Amino acid sequence: MRYCWLLIGLLSPCAFAEQPNPHRQQELLNMLKHDCGSCHGLPPKGGLGPSLMPEALIDKRDDLLLDAIQNGRAGTAMPPWRAFLTVDETGWLIQRLRQP
Ligand code: HEC
Question: In this protein, which residues make up the domain named Cytochrome c (predicted)?
Answer without folding.
Answer: 20-100
